[in-house]
Structures are given as structure tokens and as C-alpha cells.
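@channel anyone free to eyeball this complex?
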Amino acid sequence: MRVPILRQAKYLIASIQSALTDQELLQLRDDLLDQAGRYRARGVVVDVTVLDVIDSFAARTLRSIGHMLYLRGAETVIVGIQPEVAISMVQLGLDLEGIETALDLEEGLAWLDSRTG
Amino acid sequence: MESPARVPIRSDADVVLARAQGRLLAAELGFSSTDATVIATAVSEVARNIVQHAGRGELQFDTVRDRDRVGIRITARDNGPGISDIDEALRPGYSTASSLGLGLPGAKRLMDEFEIHSELGQGTQVTMTKWGS
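replying in thread with the prediction:
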């Protein structure tokens, strides 16, 4: 299933609705890159609240999304990482180095506002 | 030992199914939500390893008991090319198929017991166990 991407002023909000396959995660990356350019987005929120597993592939892809969007002039914030998921990620040795995170959508949007003026 | 559940692994959609199966069994056995997530994450790594390196294989989920402890044992099997240097494959950062190289070492860190048997040209079997308290 394709992740819906909403436009809100100068931001894009990708709200993941269910567990994603590797292919669907890569599709999300490509869709965000495409739409960020087309709509001249200044910021992107990726909401991962429903993900009950973030493994090495998902972490790497989320990091790529942030780095690639940065190269296209947009800030990225990952929101909604669940506490159990955070524990598993740290035990596995994963991080989202260089990527901004926030508790939820509201905090994520507030951070983008502070960054993009 | 109860009858095992098996999940064939042929595509990245099967990786998602295997995760769900791991979480379901962990919940049935009374593992905490955190441990169920840890188990599902380890399952995801070994299942993806099959898709990336062997193309196809299967995961088997068993309930194991030891005195008053109950555990979940996951066996991942494939008939792929095998791993030439297992110590190297378990070192974080080791990577072949353009993965981050955290798959197998990551799964090992998440589980209580972890073993790999592999023969070149024959395939690989990973057996990993998590014990409840």
C-alpha cells in the first residue's frame, strides 16, 4: 500500500498507515523526493507511529530519506517512534544519526516552524 | 513442545508476515510488549537475510520449555549460497548485498541464544531463542 502524503502549506506529511515492506519504504522515499521538488516543500514529517518494528533496513531508509531531502532543500523530522521500538532499535545498535525526531506530529510541525521560519 | 508454525520466505512481503507471526507467538507465550517487539525485529532481520542472500527459505517458530521457563525459538533455513566466513558475517558492518551489515549481528544482539550453521553451496540455518522470565 502506498503511503499517503498530505500537503500542508510548505510542508509534506507522510502518515504511514500499516506495516511496510522494504519495497513500500523505498516507494515512500521516491514519492517524497518527487513531491518535495514538485511542491517546493521546505519541510517533511514522516509519521511512524503505527510501525511496530523498525529494523536495520527501515532505519537506513528513514535516514536516507532525511539526507536526500536535505540535499533538495527540505528539512525532515521523524515522529512517533514507539517506546518498544526505541528499545529494540538501541539494542540492535541502530540510530537515526543526523535525523531530527520528535514525539508526535504536533511537536514535529513545531520543530519545522522553528527551522524554516 | 507444541507443533511449530512455519512461514515460507520468498519476498519482502513474507518478511512482514514473519514479523507478525513472531509477535503473535510471543504475545501468546506471555512475553512483554517490549520483548515481543525485540523478537519481531530479530525475525525481520533473519527473514530479510534469506530474501537478500538466498531468494527463498523458511522460518519455523517453536515454543521451548526448560524447567519453569518458556521460550520462543526461531529457525531460519535456506538453500542459498551459504556464508563463507561466519565470524565475519557476525561482525557489525560486514555487508555483502548492499545491506547495512547489521542484519545478523543485530539479530544476535537481540536474542538470548544465537547459532549459525552454514555450508557453501548448501545453505544456511540460523537458530535463535529468547527466554521469558
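from a first look: Residues 96-100 of chain B have pLDDT under 50 and may be disordered.
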